[in-house]
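Appendix B. Chain record.
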Amino acid sequence: MSGVEVAANAVLQLLLLQAWNPFYLSFNISSWSLSTLFFFYLLFPALAPRLLSMRFKWAMLMEM
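Structure tokens predicted for this chain:
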């Protein structure tokens, strides 16, 4: 890998975004779960009120 690719990988690892680029996943394979969990925790505050306000709770399973 070139120096630019190593630097890009380091930034992705620090920001927990490495799971979204499969080329850089080879360095720390097990951290994909942390990356996915971080993404979920970022989206949950925006999605939770919408999910709670749904009239038919079973419909949210169909909507996703």
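Further analysis of this model is presented in Appendix C.
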